[in-house]
Design goal:
The complex is a heterodimer of chains A (426) and B (182). Chain A is mainly α. Chain A is 77% helix and 0% strand. In chain B, a hairpin with a 2-residue loop joins strand 11 and strand 12. Classes of the chains: A mainly alpha (426), B alpha+beta (182). At the A-B interface, helix 4, helix 5 and helix 6 of A face helix 1 and strand 10 of B.
Chain lengths: 426, 182
């Protein structure tokens, strides 16, 4: 729609004042678009220049004495600090400068430490290095109010938890990851509160989801089967996050939580639908008191508590039927785990029924909403279930063949029906 | 106005801490290199498929294990103190290890347990990498391979030590310091 403001004023459709408001609105909108571009280029520029300087120093010039190299190791960090300090003193409102300078400072802190290690041939481990780097960079997020630094920080602490928890040949328990993550949360909440529509919120959501899903596994050790409860509860939290008032502001941004919650829950459920897990569980005779004090119990209790509070809030604020069935999964699984843990065959049947129920309920939701994507998602769940059972059941080839043909025909008929009804509506 | 002052003061404090971390590292290692007692560690040929990572040489010391009694359990990554002495040929020999810092005289080095195997603790020294200038890497690699095939050649590193803290000073291959290789 093209609007000719002078014409509208002339024809007395709108007043001059309204016309001024409209043109003000569009010029501001245009300006914010230009600003966004400035921020992107500012950050990209800082990243490239920072990395470039690092590579040049990393050449490890032998012409320079050890002392000169030591002094040089400080130069990028000092430069970045002066730039950030100047921006704070001048009370600069330019996001592009602030984000760019903070990114540069973040990189140069890591560079200085690694350069000193290189100059003095220190063979320290990567996880300690990442831990020191992230701890020193954390205040930059708050002092400079830099969301891009916060994103880099989230990547850094996740890397640390992987390095310490999975990759290092001396696997350690990265407890400090959780503290570092909690310390970054206030900035994230502030970002949602002030700027709920910004892309930064979207990226934060994505990185926080990835970081949590990856790092939760580092807790699993001797009683690793408990971690499945923690994962299902975590995914339930993602699915129920709209219960927190702050997350109701911009529901579009919760999509990533919803996708992660749904697909994560389904993946865990499919893993649990195999007999291997339950056979293994039934052979282990854990004493209950031993399980209760195991370290895996801490995330299990925390995630389950949070998920339950959110579930309660959701039930109170909306009708029960509007809550997705998958959000209850963690509670059902806990019941199966507690009561059927020692009876593998019964537990497997229950889990398989649960998947079938979720598949069918998704198909029904798809039909009710007339949404072809949701409908096919339900069909996909059932197909995966059939494929999984294809591998580990003793069913005859004939029966398996009929099962596949049945599901295939189901796919075809459901889609055909929906498309036809849509055509009729048109 | 007040919040801005607090912000600037906080920023200055944070900057100081950021600068202090590498500065403290430099001070510590510089002090050890200047005033520390020098030791020579003979180096063993390393796995030829992986001596280089980026621009550093991975070093393995000849003295890399200590016999321990079968009763004591040693955890991987545990901090240990190695009692050392210089043998008549000028190279270091590891005498013993302990969890506590030795109080009586004698030289010692702080290290970590790599792993325990057949009643021996395999030592992980804090100086297992030697960083090189990028352009020298191919030449040093050639020299290092040649030297490791030739058993008559002795390659070693010099390490300076103060109060158990050790810093690598020089890598010598075929009697020549790596620094002098053109």
């Amino acid at each position: 729609m093209r609007i000719n403001l002078p014409e509208l004023i002339e024809e007395n459709v709108i007043t001059q004042q309204v016309a001024d408001h409209i043109s003000d609105f569009y010029s501001r909108k245009k300006e914010s678009g230009v600003n966004k571009l400035f921020v992107i280029f500012g950050v990209l520029g800082a990243l490239l220049v920072g990395l470039g300087i690092l590579l040049i120093i990393a050449h490890n010039w032998d012409i320079l004495s050890r002392n000169v190299k030591s002094v040089l190791a400080f130069v990028p960090m000092l430069g970045a600090q002066i730039l950030c300090g100047w921006l704070l003193v001048r009370r600069s409102d330019s996001m592009a400068w602030k984000e760019g300078a903070s990114t540069f400072l973040f990189l140069s802190v890591g560079a200085s430490i690694s350069l000193v290690s290189q100059i003095y041939h220190i063979s320290g481990d990567l996880s300690t290095y990442l831990l020191v780097w992230m701890s020193l960079s954390l205040p930059v997020i708050y002092l400079m109010n830099s969301s891009f630094t916060s994103l880099l920080y989230l990547i850094g602490i996740t890397w640390y938890s992987c390095e310490a928890g999975y990759w290092s040949h001396r696997i350690d328990q990265p407890y400090l990851y959780w503290i570092l993550l909690i310390l970054a949360i206030p900035h994230y909440l502030m970002l949602i509160k002030r700027n709920s529509g910004s892309n930064y919120v979207r990226f934060h959501n994505l990185l926080i989801v990835i970081s949590l899903v990856i790092s939760l596994g580092t807790v699993a050790r001797a009683n690793s089967e408990l971690i499945y409860i923690a994962y299902l509860s975590l995914f339930a939290i993602f699915l129920l996050i709209e219960g927190i008032p702050l997350f109701q502001k911009n529901k579009d941004h919760n999509l990533i939580f919803e996708i992660a919650g749904f697909s994560g829950s389904m993946i865990i459920l499919f893993i649990l639908s195999f007999s291997r897990f339950w056979n293994h569980l039934s052979t282990m005779h854990h004493a209950v008191d031993q399980l209760l004090v195991s370290r895996e119990m801490i995330p299990v209790i925390l995630t389950t508590l949070i998920a339950s509070v959110l579930l309660y809030r959701n039930i109170r604020t909306q009708t029960l039927s509007r809550i997705k069935p998958i959000a209850f999964l963690y509670l059902i699984y806990i019941l199966i785990y507690v009561f059927l843990g020692s009876m593998p065959s019964l537990a497997i049947i229950f889990i398989n029924m649960l998947i079938l129920f979720l598949g069918v309920s998704t198909i029904i939701i798809g039909l009710r909403l007339n949404h072809i994507g949701v409908l096919n998602l339900g069909l996909l769940i059932i197909t995966i279930l059939v494929i999984c059972r294809f591998f580990d059941t003793e069913l005859s080839f004939m029966l398996r063949g009929f099962l596949f043909i049945g599901v295939g025909i189901g796919f075809f008929l459901m889609n055909y029906r929906m498309l036809k009804s849509r055509k009729n509506e048109n | 106005m007040r919040t801005r002052t607090i912000l600037i003061v906080a920023f200055i404090i944070v900057s100081m801490i950021q600068l202090a971390v590498p500065a403290q590292m430099i001070y510590k290692y510089h002090h050890i290199l200047t005033y520390g007692k020098q030791f020579k560690f003979k180096i063993a040929p390393v796995d030829p498929s992986d001596p280089f990572r980026g621009k550093f040489v991975r070093l393995r010391m000849v003295e890399d294990k200590v016999k321990v009694d079968s009763l004591s359990r040693w955890q991987s990554n545990e901090v240990i103190y190695l009692k050392i002495e210089t043998r008549s040929d000028g190279f270091v020999r590891v005498l013993d290890l302990s969890r506590e810092k030795p109080q009586s005289g004698g030289d010692f080095i702080k290290a970590r347990v790599d792993y325990e195997m057949d009643n021996s603790v395999i030592i992980e020294y804090p100086f297992s990498k030697y960083y090189l200038e990028e352009s020298k890497a191919p030449e040093v690699e050639r020299l290092y391979f040649k030297a490791s095939r030739d058993t008559a050649n002795v390659s070693f590193v010099t390490v300076n030590v103060i109060d158990g803290e050790a810093v690598l000073k020089e890598l010598i291959i075929k009697g020549k310091s790596i620094k002098d290789i053109q």
